[in-house]
């Protein structure tokens, strides 16, 4: 039993730079948008993977960080009031009898859209999983990539693996309630904030948590219940009791179910034509890093260009009976609406 | 032409030809070497282009294992990091690398 779908003109999958600018260009062309993203915020890869790293190839911005670029793109879309749905992962798409598209999220949220714009980059961003045999058996019961409920860690033997802020912050946060807590990291240096590293070392000295140098090698347990992990540091191998394992190895992206929606693909990317960025399924467009065509460059600015051409075609699909004329932003009243 | 060989975790060899100035990651992508994902496109921001420099080459050209601080930080996101681990986007191909062999790990992420 699914809920009544949200009806919309354009459904944009992915709220990274390409998706955000698509909302702007569609707005200019008189099409309203809903955006979905698997992340809890807009900006996609450049907000999640490198928010503080400067980008040097955005026209007219000699230097801008991923976070700043995201903020400005959001500001730019504001006159068109796109609606955002975060923490949503698109799973299935089907063509409806009325010619529109039914798109479902893994949460059960469903959309009925006149056009679908895939701006999903390399796919949904998700935690990196170490290549440990049987890891799937423990995920959600003993192995976690984030802490949603602290209570699930109280009174447990916890191992936290990683060397960044998330790893250290959670190690120190969970240690007081844990039966034992071991931070496992491959080297003495940490990427985490120096103040956190000092505090962690003080806690280790005070015996309130452990720190071991090493990398994970093996999971030990049965029926989804982890008992211990085996780790190694060079030739030395050792076991640590672990009924909960928290992994912080950063993020990666996977195209996932999108690749099975029936569009023609090449090397995991969606084939489009370069006149209007429509895929092999009329009404479904792909822009940004998700699409491929001869000469494709994975640049943010290419995603912007693709968004503009896509919007010219998409507006004709959404409003086939209207007369469409291209309007420059300098003369468009729409783009000037005070935000 | 500079010959570079990528050896997969299954032992399969992928022989490629590189030009000076390319990064090893670019060489791998251009030749569709399996196992080099390069999510971030070469920004040293993802650790999905991890390789191991072949032991003979480590002996021949020890600077091949010199990692920058940023690269060292990013390697925290890789798995089974060894002394000869590198991010292939951080290795610029030079003339004296003709014949270089690198190994691709079992999994990038």
Describe the structure.
The complex is a heterodimer of chains A (339) and B (109). By secondary structure, chain A is α/β, with parallel strands linked by helices. Chain A has two domains: 6-126 and 252-336, FAD/NAD(P)-binding domain (3-Layer(bba) Sandwich), CATH 3.50.50; 129-249, 3-Layer(bba) Sandwich (FAD/NAD(P)-binding domain). Chain A is 22% helix and 30% strand. Chain A has seven helices and 22 strands. In chain A, the strands form six sheets. In chain A, strands 1, 2, 5, 6, 7, 8 and 21 form a seven-stranded mixed sheet that branches. In chain A, strands 10-17-11-12-13 form a five-stranded parallel sheet, with helices on one face. In chain A, helix 1 (17-28) packs parallel to helix 3, helix 1 runs parallel beside helix 7 and helix 5 packs parallel to helix 6. The longest helix of chain A is centred in the C-terminal third of the chain and has 19 residues, at 300-318. The two termini of chain A are 39 Å apart. Chain B is built from three helices and five strands; from the N terminus they run ββαβααββ. Chain B has helices at residues 24-30, 55-60, 69-75, and strands at residues 2-7, 13-18, 50-53, 85-87, 100-103. Chain B has a five-stranded mixed sheet. In chain B, strand 1 (2-7) and strand 2 (13-18) form a beta hairpin. Chain B is globular, with a radius of gyration of 12 Å. The interface between A and B is medium-sized, with 26 and 23 residues.
């Amino acid at each position: 039993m699914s809920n009544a779908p949200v009806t919309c003109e354009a459904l944009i999958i992915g709220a990274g730079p390409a998706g955000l600018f698509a909302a702007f260009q569609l707005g200019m062309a008189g099409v309203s948008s809903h955006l979905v993203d698997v992340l809890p915020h807009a900006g996609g890869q450049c907000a999640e993977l490198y928010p503080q790293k400067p980008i040097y190839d955005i026209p007219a911005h000699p230097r801008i960080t991923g976070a700043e670029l995201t903020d400005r793109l959001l500001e730019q879309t504001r006159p068109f009031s796109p609606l955002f749905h975060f923490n949503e992962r698109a799973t299935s798409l089907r063509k409806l009898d009325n010619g529109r598209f039914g798109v479902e999220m893994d949460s059960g949220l469903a959309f009925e859209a006149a056009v679908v714009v895939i701006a999903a980059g390399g796919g949904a961003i998700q935690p990196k999983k170490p290549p440990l045999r049987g890891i799937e058996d423990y995920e959600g019961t003993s192995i976690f990539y984030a802490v949603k409920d602290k209570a699930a860690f109280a009174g447990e033997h916890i191992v936290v693996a990683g060397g960044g802020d998330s790893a250290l912050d959670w190690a120190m946060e969970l240690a007081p309630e844990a039966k034992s807590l071991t931070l496992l990291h491959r080297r003495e240096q940490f990427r985490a904030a120096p103040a956190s590293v000092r505090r962690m070392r003080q806690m280790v000295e005070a015996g309130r948590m452990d720190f071991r140098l090493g990398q994970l090698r093996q999971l030990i347990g049965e029926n989804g219940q982890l008992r211990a992990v085996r780790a190694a540091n060079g030739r030395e191998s050792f076991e640590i009791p672990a009924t909960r394992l928290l992994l912080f190895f950063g993020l990666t992206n996977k195209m996932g179910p999108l690749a099975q929606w029936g569009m023609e693909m090449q090397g995991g990317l969606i084939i489009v034509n370069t006149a209007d960025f429509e895929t092999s399924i009329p009404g479904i467009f792909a822009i940004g890093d998700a699409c491929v065509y001869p000469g494709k460059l994975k640049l943010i600015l290419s995603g912007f260009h693709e968004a503009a051409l896509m919007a010219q075609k998409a507006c004709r699909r959404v409003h086939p009976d209207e007369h469409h004329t291209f309007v420059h932003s300098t003369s468009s009243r729409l783009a000037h609406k005070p935000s | 032409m500079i010959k570079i060989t990528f050896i997969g975790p299954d032992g399969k060899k992928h022989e490629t030809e590189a030009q000076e100035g390319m990064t090893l990651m670019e060489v791998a992508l251009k030749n569709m070497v399996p196992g080099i994902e390069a999510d971030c496109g070469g920004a040293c921001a993802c650790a999905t282009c991890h390789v191991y420099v072949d032991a003979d080459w480590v002996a021949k050209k020890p600077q091949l294992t010199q990692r920058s601080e940023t690269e060292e930080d990013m390697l925290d996101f890789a798995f089974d990091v060894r002394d000869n681990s590198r991010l292939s986007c951080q290795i610029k191909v030079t003339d004296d690398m003709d014949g270089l062999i690198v190994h691709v790990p079992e999994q990038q992420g």
